[in-house]
Amino acid sequence: MFLKKFFRRQFISFYFDNKYKLLLEHVKNNKIIDSIEKEFEEKKDIEKFIKEKIDEIPQTFVSTILQTLNQGVIDSCSKQKYLDKDIDFDNVKIRCINNYSFYASIYDITKLLKEYSFNIDFLYSIFAPIDFFAKERKNRFYVLVLNNYIAILGYENFKPIYSDLIILNSDEEEIIEDIEDIDLLNEIEEESIDENIENIDEADINENEELENKIENLTTNIEVKILNSLKESIKEYYEHYSNDFIEKIIILDTIGIDITINSLIEEELLITSEIENFDLLKIINRMSIESI
Amino acid sequence: MRAYSFITPKKKPLFKEDTKLWLIFITASFFLYLFFAIFLLFKSYLFDKDSKKLTQQIENLKQKTTEIIAQKEFIYKQKALYEDISTKNDLVKQQIKNLLDLIPDPITLERFYIDNNKLIIYGITPTKDVYNLLMLPPLKSIFSDTKTYFYELPNGWYRFKSENFIKSEDENQTTQN
Question: Is residue A204 very low, low, confident or very high in pLDDT (cuts 50, 70, 90)?
Fold first, then answer.
């Protein structure tokens, strides 16, 4: 409606990643006037905040992303393609964009909509913000990094053909298992076991401490987790999806990962990579603004 | 525009419920004011129209009044003239009556001429004495100057012409001076 141009609208985007992260933007005539960023520990707090905001301005649009595993991207919109991939076509909701589509389990969507006491207006697949943001689309691998998981979207000839959502388990043992193949860890373990602590001299202690710190960093470091997940995904990609080489990996960073991941990827996977700061909440809001 | 969302948002109202209520009241009062303003404008237009009509009527009446006053003055003048004539006629009538009363039986009146201040009588008298005895005294009592001319007729009677003058006030005053 013509009048809507003159009204202030409110776009709220949120998602859960260790805690609830929220961005509120006031928009007038498709221009952002101001924004508020907030974090909440408790669900009831974010519910209370959003309800208050909805009461203040009726033109409020709440958006979020689906963070469940039963979602992905298919490089077609046809039912046959879904059936070929063993996806239950009747139990997924599909959003077709040009000649590819995003899908998610209807059960997960319904569950998420019922989870909050306020009304959600836009619900996106976790891969949608990546696709919305992606400018380079020729044989590119996009990795959206959050605290608890990473979402990978692989493009072949300007079309997303591969998607994967990997939960990064915080359990220490599993992390160590994941990085077992790193020689450095084995080296340290051997040295630590074999040597008698009482007999080692001060220089050795210092050296050991340095190595332990390095390992400690590596084992708990999210960069390593990402690297390992990426390895698995690329392996799967080459095996089942495409024979074309991935030319570049673009890491969409929402948590502030270390730049060393670029060198790690280049050394381990022999693919160039770059990190881009990614404001997921802002992108979600931008998608909603453009949808209206 | 690419719509990525799995769900579509419900239609959102532009205003809150209480704002809507306020807007309804404000709009209603605005329309009432507007209606009242239009009503006043219409009334004012009608008044203006009536006023122009009345002004025109006043002008017409003024013109008519002027005409009537002129007619009235003319009528007054006519009336005055009529009264004057009537008075004069009455006076002449009275004078004629008086004159006819003045003529004694033996004398025959042939004609007479009356002016403002003179009376000329033509007639026939059997004798001069009859005239001098019966007619001259009343004429003298009325007029200040009386002249009589006799012409003897073949039968012995006399034709006479009597000129009688009344002196006007101006003449009187001049005489007195």
Answer: low
Q: Which of B7, B12, B16 has its CB closest to that of A122?
A: B7
Helical (H) or strand (E) element with A2: none
**Between A and B, how many CB-CB pairs are < 8 A?**
64
Structure tokens at A268: 């381990």
Q: Is A262 exposed, middle or buried (0-12, 13-18, 19+ CB in 10 A)?
A: middle
Backbone Cα Rg of chain A? 22
Burial state string for A269-282 with b = 16 or more CB within 10 A and e = fewer than 16 = beeebebeebbbbb
How far is residue B5 from each of residues A54, A146, B162, measured CA to CA in Å? 20, 21, 145
ipTM > 0.85 for the complex: no
CB contact under 8 A, B4 and A93: no
Three-class secondary structure of residue A145 per DSSP: strand
Chain B residues touching residue A288 (CB < 8 angstroms): 5
Spatial separation of the C-alpha atoms in residues A179 and A227, rounded to whole Å: 10
Strands A92-97 and A19-28: unpaired
- Which residue ranges make up each domain of chain B? 46-102, 106-169
Contact check, Cβ <8 Å, A104/B10: no
pLDDT by position in tens, chain B (length 177) = 568 999 999 888 888 888 889 999 999 999 999 999 999 999 999 999 999 999 999 999 999 999 999 999 999 999 999 988 888 888 878 878 877 887 888 899 899 888 878 889 999 999 999 999 988 888 888 888 999 999 999 999 999 999 999 876 555 555 444
For residue A9, what is the nearest residue in chain B, using CA coordinates? B14
Q: Using an 8 Å Cβ cutoff, are A263 and A96 in contact?
A: no
Q: Which residues 9-48 on chain B approach chain A with CB closer than 8 angstroms?
A: 9-10, 12-16
pTM: 0.63
Residue A65: closest C-alpha in chain B = B5
Q: Kindly report the CATH number that applies to the domain delimited by B106-169.
A: 3.30.1360
Task: Give me the DSSP letters along B132-152.
Answer: IIIIHHHHHHH-SEEEEEEEE
Question: 10 Å Cβ neighbour count for A91?
Answer: 12
The whole-angstrom separation of Cα A22 and Cα A288 is: 15
Q: Which residues of A are less than 8 Å from B23 in CB distance?
A: none
